[in-house]
């Protein structure tokens, strides 16, 4: 079972707007976009630490 955790973040309105626009352009939710960005960062860091 893949349990999900809720996370609330505060961000500058400019960043919120940019993320919303980018997500809308590629047809995904802002939440999905943020998760995608976080996974890419974590995977990149995992490669560096090997």
UniProtKB/TrEMBL annotation:
InterPro entries: Arc_rbn_hlx_hlx, Ribbon_hlx_hlx, Uncharacterised_HicB. Coiled coil: none annotated. GO terms for biological process: regulation of DNA-templated transcription. It comes from the Bacteria. This is Toxin-antitoxin system HicB family antitoxin. It comes from Clostridium liquoris. The lineage of its organism: Bacteria, Bacillati, Bacillota, Clostridia, Eubacteriales.
């Amino acid at each position: 079972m893949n349990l999900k955790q809720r996370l609330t973040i505060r961000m500058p309105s400019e960043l919120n707007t940019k993320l919303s626009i980018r997500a809308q352009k590629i047809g995904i939710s802002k939440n999905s976009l943020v998760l995608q960005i976080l996974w890419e960062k974590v995977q990149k860091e995992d490669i560096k630490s090997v």
